[in-house]
């Protein structure tokens, strides 16, 4: 090991100066600033401003706006007063690209060559539509065997709710055969999107995550990358897990690479064997930046999805989903969508969302966002993930609302994680789904959100939702059509 006893946290924000403000709105503060050391990294009670300057200016309230990579122009960018968000529910008529168009109109942006990009970049392989090699590194190690499904499943899943104000990028330029026709038959009010196979230098891109090769982003890519980091969470809120300086101070502890993708780059360190496994990961993956936090015994795992208007005050709420605890103590990777719990979940999560929204506003970031909150057995919440983008289960929540409006469906179960397959070819998939939906019209419905047929033709990778009024029925249908990859016989 690089250290015989532990690994010290390595933050991706070490290139920035952290300024701690003695806030006057706290009653006895005088508004002075002091620089924090990179080792302390995060304050415990006061606001932190992040800049790229290595040294404080003599007058720290001026002079930071000239840099193209500065996150904060001046202290005046921050609104220190408590901000009460104006939250409204999704209207079931406005879709992803419509919100971006409305936001750009509000900002008086004139370039209408805008593309919605829902494919994530990769830093572990060049076999990807977009390869972030140097600046905006995302930790997706080990690299996928193939990025074909990655370039289709995610982008098509989000394209279902893209709308038509702006086209969506898809590397093939067209959806898999039968997918759009299936959406039109199964999702009330769906608007089939336009797809484009490339991004030009003249295009402005609303990116899932910042991409090094793209010239013009809707949001500043430096700010976007900062917000996507696990080490940014502690700058937004105290309602989160405690940061630890290393992996030895307290065990068990949790280690997360700052810009992890999916569930990659996350470790629970209970003993020296776990430490050795983490050491091997660091060596194999190029020593990414990471944070260490305390371990919390979790009772509930809840995610919410919203759109933040450019004014930073108006927020559209798409809903919440939950990953349920299984009998063995682990959490299901399926997203449980339960309409009767939506208002309760919103009230539970809004205190966390308000702080995230205020921080995003201070940095000039707007658009779609998802927040993951874990709750312990005492009901205490911990904000553990900020996703400054359209998030995975959001299209399924929107689909449930459209089906609820037509059929009074109240439940949904959405499966997208891992290698989920329908065993058979695409033609058989469409035939069986059509037959099932026809036989169960008004009772339960299968929606294939996205699909990709493997070259062998014996299985189809799918993102699938089952919607109805009985969760056990939804689960049975889901297990019938969507299986994990089968182990090959020796």
Helices and strands in order, then pairings?
Blueprint: E1 17-21, E2 33-36, E3 48-51, E4 86-89, H1 96-106, E5 114-117, H2 153-159, E6 168-169, H3 179-186, E7 195-196, E8 204-207, E9 216-217, H4 221-227, H5 233-236, E10 243-244, E11 253-257, E12 266-269, H6 272-285, E13 290-294, E14 298-308, E15 314-323, E16 335-338, H7 342-362, E17 367-376, E18 381-387, H8 394-407, E19 411-415, E20 420-423, H9 426-439, E21 445-453, E22 459-468, H10 471-481, E23 483-484
Parallel strand pairs: 4-15, 5-8, 6-7, 8-9
Antiparallel strand pairs: 1-2, 1-3, 10-13, 11-12, 11-13, 14-15, 14-17, 16-19, 17-18, 19-22, 20-22, 20-23, 21-22
Low-confidence stretches: 1-5, 15-28, 36-82
Helix content: 10-25%
Helix count from the secondary structure assignment: 10
Biggest beta sheet attributes = 6 strands, antiparallel
Percent of residues in β-strands: 15-25%
Mean pLDDT: 85
Helices and strands: which structural class? alpha+beta
Shape: globular
End-to-end distance:
36 Å
Radius of gyration: 23 Å
Kindly report the oligomeric state of this protein. single chain
Number of strands: 23
Count of folded domains: 3
Summarize the structure.
By secondary structure, the protein is α+β, with helices and mostly antiparallel strands. It is 23% helix and 24% strand.
